[in-house]
Amino acid sequence: MLLIVVGLFAGILAGMLGVGGGLIFTPVLFFLFKGAGVAEPVLWTIASSLFCTFVASSTSVYRQFRMRNLFIKEGFLVGFMGILGTIFGRQIITQPFYSEREFSLIFSTLLIYTAYKFLKGTKNPTQTNLSDDGQLTLNKTLLIGILGGFIATIAGVGGGIVMVPLMTLLFALPFLKGVSISSTAIVIISFSAFFQLALLSPTSLGISAYSVGYIDFGTVFPLLLGTIIGANIGVLLTKKINRRVFEITFSLMAIAVAIRMLWGVFF
User: Fold this and answer.
1) Between the CA of residue 256 and those of 18, 45, 67, 138, what are the distances in Å?
2) For residues 156 and 107, is the Cβ–Cβ distance under 8 A?
């Protein structure tokens, strides 16, 4: 029941702010696996979070497809390039040197960066532009995909936190086009990453008895149930509650979680 409530809260935030599920799933799962004394909590966290991200992003892409907001060709190209990044990322996280310290440092940096972007506020003159302006060459697609896939795998997130800024700021794509391409790519990237980790043989058990590789299905299903419900509530709340209040709330929460993660491994 507690995981359903946490998932509900995560879904509301995701629905209102458009943040990737991994930014919320990952710290919750990390504290959960670590607190339960599970060996190799980083691998269990990353694999389980990526499975959650796959389900959540698939739902998001389906909604965009219904709204005809998808750039399927570009999204699939970036996603398939991202598979290369996930392979490289898997090699990193399965090495002995990639411990809780390295994972906490990388993920906390992503949290603080995201909090900074929300606190700063967004200027969105191009946010209503969903035209087909702006093209991605093969080299650009390769760069975006590999970086997105790599970050997704070493941090347990979707990779959009890297791919969207690259497309919109560095390559000057319209904002909504970048988000749409990223959403499609995340489905492929997260599937590739969690599938690779599902093929591994853990040296220990997860929290529940229902797991494949490093994915603890018994733990993530309650989270996903709450998230699916919460996401729909969040979309409705965007029209009734001041979005800026939630941006500030999420930013402060993200900073607090980052400090807690860093404190737990460095002090």
Assistant:
1) 20, 19, 36, 40
2) yes
Number of neighbouring beta carbons within 10 Å of residue 129: 14
Q: Convert the pLDDT of each residue in 228-255 to its tens digit.
A: 888 777 766 766 777 677 778 778 888 9
Domain boundaries, the chain: 2-266
The CA distance from 222 to 98, in Å, is: 28
Q: pLDDT tens digit string along 122-161? A: 554 444 444 445 578 888 899 999 999 999 999 988 888 8
Structure tokens at 89: 């990322």
Cβ pair 180, 47 in contact under 8 A: no
- Can you name the residues that pair with 191 across neighbouring β-strands? none
In angstroms, what CA-CA distances link 90 with 77, 138, 207?
A: 20, 24, 22
Global confidence as pTM: 0.84
Could you count the other beta carbons within 10 Å of the beta carbon of residue 227?
30
* Amino acid sitting at position 97: F
